[in-house]
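quick one before i forget lol
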Amino acid sequence: MASSRAVPNLPFRRQRGQRSPGEFAAAVRRAAREIGEQVACDARYIGRVEAGEIRCPNYAYERVFLHMFPGLTLTDLGFTAREHVRGRAARVPVEQSANDPGHSEISEESDVLRRAFMTSGSVTVAASLGLGGTSAAATPSIPAPRRIGEAEVAAVEAAVRRIRLLDDRHGADGLYRQAAVPLRTAYALLDSGTATRQSTTDRLHSGAGELSISVGWLAHDSGRFDDARSHYAEALATARVAGDPALEAHAFCNTSFLARDSGRYREAVRAAQAGRGAAKHLSSARLLSLLSLREAGGWAGLGDRTNCEQALVQAHALFDRGTSDADPEWMSFFGEPELEALEAQCHAALGDWARAARHAYRASVLQDPHFTRNLALYRAELATDLARAGRPEEAAAAGRQVLDLLDEVQSSRIQAMLAVTARLLLPRRRSSPEVAAFLERHAAV
């Protein structure tokens, strides 16, 4: 195992002081939010750092740690210099990274994943779990039943975190096919291996289920609704087999979102309600808030204003209780901007375009520009709402802001929303120079 050669990171452990790993992880997440970063830090991650299993943090964690401990370097915090850990990946030219940011970041994480599996004795698994440098059509070839331990589980969990981070920054379209490879490998591990401990089996089930949801979301956001439905169903089945209510709530949450986007509004309501049932003992008000917003979206699609408003009131009340250490890792995206954006979608579905535009505007100004995909999404929603509200020049301005971001973001959802905006603004092309400029540029893109 990789951890057998690890040297404990005592300088980092000293920074934790008397706080528990969970408390320290919460402090890391708060520090990340202060600088607009997004990290899925939990007690397990802190434990791995202190055990020396993570010799050098990725770039997101590096920025957070340096913000938390001003005046200290990574070396002061007990980490190894990146060039001594990353090897050749650290010497990728800056120009290449700038031209293809998603691919370079995926390749960097792949080196870590490959090492974890190669040191545990399965080169085939190492190659297939990586998120770069591997054919998306490759089929994992798992040896006869084998012992599965920390390295395998940690690599699955790392794949989940990397997919979420890259989706936040670059959108889903360029990631979906690559992400399917580690997903197949994770389920092949479940089928072929025997874990050393029950806790390892539980973590592998949870990791595989979360990976299925992450890949399902990439399919969902890139317009592959049938694929997304299959992945979410796979995650739900995994949750039921493992008796994992947190994973079950997550699967129902995404299933509700997909059902709403697919026009199956009654299913959206029922899935959100089922998710709340799974989450009721998890002590996460923010999770319950998001599920209430999913339910509100279903009611809005059905045209049921009364139930939609009730669900929105409940969502706000739960959101106002604040965050807690019980909030799932995957909910790091759910802050005030997302709350405003989801409420905007409800009002838009009910035909209240002016109200929808107000909430979409709040979402766009509250969103940290570091997370390009969400910023583009909120501005695209704003553009459509403004166009429907009879404010064409403002809609065109918002649309141009989205076009400015398309070099960094690949999302079929955002492109489809822009196409709707363009179609709505077409009758004003001759009467408004602002609209004409947007339509011309949109057509060129």
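fyi Residues 348-357+368-445 form one domain.
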